[in-house]
Design brief:
two-stranded antiparallel ribbon
């Protein structure tokens, strides 16, 4: 695929001995050094490295926090306070872990929106995209479980409200709810279950992320033009061209992350979660973390409990069907003028739903949430399929090299011939 694809050659005797028995260095060399990438990749393609960095931070801080956490409803909040006040660097670890979740989701939303705009879900990358959706599902579950562990007011009541939703399942709903709770109410068995799963799921995310990267290396990167690599001139080696971009993006992202960790550690949280959980006092307004708010708004916009739960789950699951819902032959949104309009309206709709999810139920907020929910699903099941039949797209570049040269005012490769 590229003129840069050189095999790994061990230089020392030890390296040759090791490579002949476990060729992991050769695998890393082919995957992250000489792997060919489209030469027009920009900084929007660096969020995979950002996400991997945040995943490692979450795993590392989570393991240390788990050493001091007590999954008992009578002791959980005290252990949370003890970590902050008495454990060496405990407050730093807690602030990194709590804010890390928010920044993890910020990066994944940018990653998803980029993939949707540039058509990274289209053939032959369907499995790559679906694995990404699975990771997103696991992230949502992990974040919800983690939000419950401090056992403050918002933690306990959010856990109660969300787990109660399964009771809407016909016939088996109440039985499933009691199994999740480990009894007839949210209590210590519930917290034990949540803690165990919260510890396990990040490693599942790590494993599926490896599959995600593997799938990426099989089919190759998509790019802003949506045109596949056709000649060696269309590609560059991953190192140093993309590694330098990745390092720059990771550093900038970590600067913003550290600003919140050191100067605004509780800005993205909720004050009620610093109050010990009290089952006899219901908060005035139960609000999940910001990254759940659009789906929370969809849930609340529907009066029927079962339909609301189905809509909330399908709001995420429908992303997995994008490769087949989008009927257009053109990948990149750059060359789809009508698609651009509806896509950015959808992004705005997601932001508005997030804002509505933090507002009280009733009145104009509920009506607006219903309108936002309708457009959210209409975009996937009606607009995208229809655009493929009537949208007039712009001409695609003949090659990735042509796309690069046209941006810099050079002569395109096709014109040169």
């Amino acid at each position: 695929m590229s003129q840069h694809s050189n095999a790994y050659v061990p230089k020392s005797g030890l390296a040759k001995w090791f490579e002949s028995r476990l060729p992991i260095l050769g695998l890393l060399h082919s995957s992250f050094i000489v792997f060919p990438v489209p030469r027009n990749l920009n900084y929007w393609w660096t969020f995979g490295a950002v996400l991997f960095t945040m995943l490692i931070i979450q795993l590392a801080t989570g393991i240390f926090l788990a050493m001091f956490y007590v999954s008992d409803t009578k002791e959980a909040f005290n252990s949370f306070v003890t970590i902050i006040r008495d454990v060496p660097y405990g407050e730093l670890l807690r602030n990194m872990h709590a804010n890390g979740a928010s920044f993890f989701f910020l990066a994944v939303y940018i990653h998803i929106f980029r993939g949707m705009f540039f058509g990274s879900y289209k053939a032959p990358r369907e499995v790559l995209w679906i694995l990404g959706v699975v990771i997103y599902f696991l992230m949502m579950g992990t974040a919800f479980l983690g939000y419950s562990l401090p056992w403050g007011q918002m933690s306990m009541w959010a856990a109660t409200v969300i787990t109660s939703l399964v009771s809407a399942i016909p016939l088996v709903g109440d039985t499933v709810k009691e199994y999740i709770w480990g009894g007839f109410s949210v209590s210590t068995p519930t917290l034990n279950r949540f803690f165990s799963l919260h510890y396990l799921l990040p490693f599942m995310i790590l494993g599926i992320s490896v599959l995600h990267v593997w799938a990426l290396h099989v089919v190759g990167n998509n790019n802003p033009s949506g045109v596949e690599i056709k000649t060696p001139k269309d590609s560059l080696t991953f190192h140093p061209y993309m590694t330098m971009k990745d390092v720059a993006s990771v550093c900038l992202f970590l600067i913003a992350f550290c600003w919140f960790v050191f100067y605004m550690p509780n800005y993205l949280g909720h004050a009620d979660n610093f109050i010990p959980a009290n089952p006899d006092v219901t908060p005035n307004h139960i609000v999940p973390e910001w990254y759940f708010l659009p789906f929370y708004a969809i849930l609340r916009s529907i009066e029927n409990k079962l339909i609301g739960v189905i809509a909330m789950v399908m709001a995420i699951a429908i992303l997995a069907f994008l490769p087949w819902l989008d009927t257009s032959k053109v990948r990149s949104g750059k060359y789809r003028p009508v698609f651009k309009i509806f896509f950015w309206l959808w992004v705005i709709d997601c932001l508005v739903l997030g804002w509505l999810g933090a507002k009280p139920i009733g009145g104009y907020y509920t009506i607006a949430s219903q309108i936002g929910t309708i457009y959210y699903f209409l975009y996937f099941i009606a607009i995208l399929p229809a655009l493929g039949f009537f949208e007039k797209t712009k001409p695609l570049p003949a090659s990735i090299l042509d796309d690069v040269l046209s941006k810099h005012g050079g002569t395109t490769a096709s014109a040169a011939h």
